[in-house]
Design brief:
This protein is mainly alpha-helical and 90 residues long. It is 64% helix and 0% strand. Helix 1 crosses helix 2 (25-46).
Length: 90
């Protein structure tokens, strides 16, 4: 997954002309890794806004089988709890 994210970042930076900031592959790799870390942190922080009902279901072991820690961190969770339920409870 990290390589795919890095490739997406590289393509995006090239399309937006940001590649001019990089004078070496090492500099571009460093920027790519920073981008990946920022995305991982953003997703983890998003878990702090998980619906209390979903948190309670997880703590009691009543969450859907497909609702795993990995899935939670891969999703771009909406802040609206109703939208979270639509996305995750199915």
């Amino acid at each position: 997954a990290s390589r795919r994210r890095c490739a997406i970042y590289t393509r995006k930076s090239s399309e937006e002309g940001l590649e001019q900031e990089f004078n070496s592959l090492a500099a571009q790799r460093e920027a790519c890794e920073a981008y990946i870390r920022s995305q991982q942190i953003r997703r983890l922080v998003g878990l702090a806004f998980l619906s209390p009902q979903l948190v309670e279901a997880i703590l009691q072991g009543r969450q859907p089988v497909a609702l795993t820690a990995t899935r939670l961190t891969e999703l771009d969770l909406p802040l609206d709890w109703t939208e979270q339920h639509k996305l995750l409870a199915g």
